[in-house]
Amino acid sequence: MAELQFAAPETVNQAIKILGGAKGKGRILAGGTDLLVQMRSGRIEPGFIVDVKNIPELTEIKKEKNGYRVGAAVSGARLGEHKSVKKKWPGVVEALELIGSTQIQGRASLGGNLCNGSPAADSVPAMIAAGAICKIAGPKGRRTAKVEDIVTGPGKTSLKKGEFIISFLLPEKPKKSSEAYLRLIPRTEMDIAVVGAGVSLTLDNQGICTKARVALGAVAPKPVLVEEAGLILVGSKLDPDTLEKMASACRAACNPIDDMRGTVEYRTKVAGVLATRATQIAAERVRSGR
Amino acid sequence: MTLQNGNGHNGNGHNGSGTSNGYKYVGTRPVRPDGVDKVTGRANFGADISLNGMIYGSVVRSPHAHAKIKKINFDKALKLKGVKAVISGKDFPTLKPSDKLPGVAPLSFYDMSRNVIARDKVLYDGHAIAAVAATTQAIADKAAKLIDVEYKILKPVMTAADAMKEKAPLLHDDLFTEGVDPTPKKASNIAKRTELKLGDPEVAMQSADFIVEGDYSTETVHQGYIEPHACAANFAQDGSVSIWASSQGAFMIRAYTARLCGMSTSKIKVIPAEIGGGFGGKTTIYLEPLALMLAKKSGRPVKMTMSRTEVMRATGPTSGGTAHVKIGAKKDGTLVAGTLELKYEAGAFPGSPVALGCMTGFAPYDLKDVACLGWDVVVNRPKAAAYRAPGAPVAAYAVESAMDELAHKLGIDPLTLRRKNSAKEGTKAVYGVEFDRIGNEDCLQAAQKTKHYNTPLGENQGRGVASGFWFNIGGTSSAEVMINEDGTVIVATGSPDIGGSRASMALMAAEVLGVDVSRIKPLVADTESVPYSDLTGGSRVTFATGKAVIDAAEDAIKDMKRRAAKVWKVDFDQVDWENGSAICIENDEIKPMSVADIAQIAGKTGGAISGKANINVTKGAGPGFGTHICDVEVDPETGRVTVLRYTAIQDVGTAIHPSYVEGQLQGGAAQGIGWALNEEYVYSKEGNLLNTGFLDYRVPVASDLPMIDTVLVEVPNAGHPFGVRGVGETPIVPPLGAVANAVSNAIGKRMTSLPMSPAKILQKIDAG
Amino acid sequence: MAKVEIPIEVARKFTKGVTTHEVEASDLQDILISLDNDFPGIKEALNTGLAVAIDSSILQDWFLEEVEQNSKVRFIPAIEGG
């Protein structure tokens, strides 16, 4: 039986080196809420676990001139307590906070949720709607990528061998912007989204939408940015007709599977419902200044 | 923890000043003796045992739902360093179809043995085929993967409907349908047909002004106990074995394991661990014979612990099934006839609780003309085990749904309709028994009076009510009451504590002895420290074991009175027992002797003092009736259900420890709500179980449920000294119907299939 | 005379479908013997997997229980519990 190795480096460069030496058998451990479960169930058998929680860059939340930078391993509980981030990116924060339970929240991170590659990951549609940008480290240096370009299919990402995500930039928003994330689960917690919808909006002083991004989860092999849905909202006052058109665009973007968590028909229908409701919540947040 | 309750005070510790029922201890709420250890992690459950030199077992399970085992090759596994023993079905005695447990329910050891470890055929995904023991769990698990099994894959049969078809693949070529005459010569997947009838429902139905009729279906559900099955076995040099295990009956484990392993009971000692939930699922054995055989072969103590996946794939679900129900009524709501046909999936071996479904479905109603027909059908799923009121919830779901529909048709309040037709003292149930004084109508009345039932509903909300019935049983129980030297008391029974029974035993002993409950230590003894007791199940322990404790306490009192008589030099009949002391009847100048006084001089008056009782309580277990009220809100665009409010009303006889009685009502309701809304076994086309964990097998989590309010209706049971009635099972009977009626009323359409997942409800709403 | 009711399945096999019988008996064994005289083989069928109800009491584990004049005795499916 191959011995499982473990390291907890303190710098990004050390982590890159260790991963390079693991010959493709290395796995990043952030919160471990997916990794450890998959190991226990026998689904994966990594040779080297690299715990990144001792690397400051991966656990910091800091303001930058273009927005907020959130470390990839920051836990849901910590982000949820960050007043400024929560005020500006309520959709991202509420999405991350939906993962698991109170106990899981002490561990689960944005980086882990994204890199697990699940089409149903809660925080991913919210980050896509928010236009979040990943900072990636790897053997060939650092690069950036849009969140929507990371997941390529169930369990698969565009990260190259030895690469991992250091942090996310949540880009600064214009005034009168807000966002929301909603998901459907049969229970109230401890569940995987049957459908998820993240919406980010900017309104002008007349209440007309000037900017909108809509993203869906669990309705395709990967989380999807529905650009058309955003375009439909722009220029409108988010009246019922526009919302219905937007919902139709969302449904058209769905390419889900039938599985024990939901049928194609159900997921498609509910995607439109949740996108509409998330839009209304985001708009209400703009209007109420919260 | 705060328990909301319907009948009085909350809190810890009894108040000492007595209760409204006239008892000093019975009806108070002291903290259970096992409670703090359980919530702080000190309690030892099945998997917590550790023995010198202990090694670990792992089970090889079938990846196929239906296949012949052609060959098992252990070579690779045996070469792995650390592997100490391997076993397969060949290591166990071959049993015959006639090997049954004598007694009223003919338990088949032939089937049990083949369920515990497959012989020539695997009958469900997860069926145990072989096992291995090694020095670490990791090595054992790895070795299990190295055991090669060659299969001839057969076509699986997954539902009762498919299994009953003429040309369905057969699970057993030696299974012939029972209950039909003449007994068929052709093997079948239909194990048994059961028919019950009163009067002539077909003729009576013709006099009905209104008839409701419908088909209802449910899926396989699991008991969902938090603690997976676990045990450890250790052989001594003399060939005797000790088994540590968590179960609902240490004597049950001893008897079944002895039989499956070909050993005498005197060679097996079973030490009960704390149990982390059973709900009926731990009334049989799975790992114990395997651990025993691995221990025997390896010469080392062997521990085996199931994963959640193994629990879901291979242990005790209860049957999914279908029901066809028909009820006829007069315009004024008087029921004239009822019929019910049930088809239950037994799993891989016969024995679904379909007969019990037939017996219970119409039990809350006074019907002179009623018939129930049941089919017990084998399918390629794990063998059904008991689950809280086995068989009753599915039957009640169909009947209670039909009653709701009838109430709508007639324009009568659904509780009024039930009251108008309620079974009462003298009503003859379909299985032929006339009820004594029962609390059925009392519950309906209490339900109608609740604030809950009289609170208006909002938009998209619906309210459902349903009734339920369970027999409750007595059975064989033993107890010993030992008086310690300082006057404290030990109450030993052989009944594992699955619902707070130790607290109830202590309270009943305290009441009889007149000793403060804090001075009484109740314990669950091993199989060599108390005489035989039936397992904990059938809502029998507080009733029957409680009666044994009362008898044993009275026996101890007799002994203590004898000691006092000796000291006082008076005749025995001059001594009475009052408030925990012996008193001299003829001479009140003699100072009474307390338990502690008598205990102090036990040695001088004849030795240690104890009382015992070994009884079989064959009658008097009063039946339990309950009525539940459920409010839900349905999201019309997503079909998602929120349970807003829930009240469980039940006749509980005398509540010995009201908090734990309320806990039974709440727990049963919670499990029933899960059954109604989200729980189900999901199989692939090939017959592989897809949701083998709690992520996708959705039991309700705490935040899914409102506080479940309880109303304890106390109609004392004349068959028990304190009026105890079993309470554990009735509460899971009404919820399926109550929730289904609530959802149906919220959406204005009848839901006829469980679980009522959001997708299923939305489809119904959208069906126009 | 005790009034004895037997299950439909047993009746079909042994008594041409008659489910109700009057039996002179003082205990349950008497009843079995008496029925078996009239319907050979029925004793074993009633002894397997059935509980007995005497009036309103269900006996899971029955053997020699006494039966009074005019008692109603019914053989019913055995009850298990969870």
Question: What number of structural domains do the residues of chain B give?
Answer: 3
Note the overall shape of chain C.
globular
Count every helix of chain B, treating DSSP H or I runs of 4 or more residues as helices: 19
SS content category of chain B: alpha+beta
Any descriptors?
heterotrimer, B: 768 residues, Aldehyde Oxidoreductase, domain 3, Aldehyde Oxidoreductase, domain 4, seven-stranded mixed sheet, 28 strands, globular, disordered N terminus, C: 82 residues, alpha+beta, Ubiquitin-like (UB roll)
Summarize this structure briefly.
The complex is a heterotrimer of chains A (290), B (768) and C (82). Chain A has 290 residues and is α+β, with helices and mostly antiparallel strands.
Describe, in plain words, how this protein is organized in 3D.
The complex is a heterotrimer of chains A (290), B (768) and C (82). Chain A is built from twelve helices and 14 strands. By secondary structure, chain A is of the alpha+beta class. Chain A folds into two domains: 5-171, 2-Layer Sandwich (Uridine Diphospho-n-acetylenolpyruvylglucosamine Reductase, domain 3), CATH 3.30.465.10; 177-288, Enolase-like, domain 1 (2-Layer Sandwich). Chain A has a five-stranded antiparallel sheet. A four-stranded antiparallel sheet of chain A has the order 11-12-13-14. Chain A has a three-stranded parallel sheet with strand order 1-3-2, with helices on one face. In chain A, 36% of the residues lie in helices and 25% in strands. Chain B has three domains: 47-154 and 229-305, Aldehyde Oxidoreductase, domain 3 (Alpha-Beta Complex), CATH 3.90.1170.50; 317-472 and 622-766, Aldehyde oxidase/xanthine dehydrogenase, molybdopterin binding domain (Aldehyde Oxidoreductase, domain 4, 2-Layer Sandwich), CATH 3.30.365; 474-617, Aldehyde Oxidoreductase, domain 4. Chain B has 19 helices and 28 strands. In chain C, a hairpin with a 2-residue loop joins strand 3 and strand 4. Chain C has one domain: Roll (Ubiquitin-like (UB roll)). With 82 residues, chain C is an alpha+beta fold. Chain A binds chain B through residues 1, 41, 101, 184, 186-192, 194, 260-263, 265-266, 269-270, 273-274, and chain B through 138-139, 142, 309, 637-640, 677-678, 682, 690-691, 694-696, 698, 700-701, 703-704, 757-759, 762-763, 766.
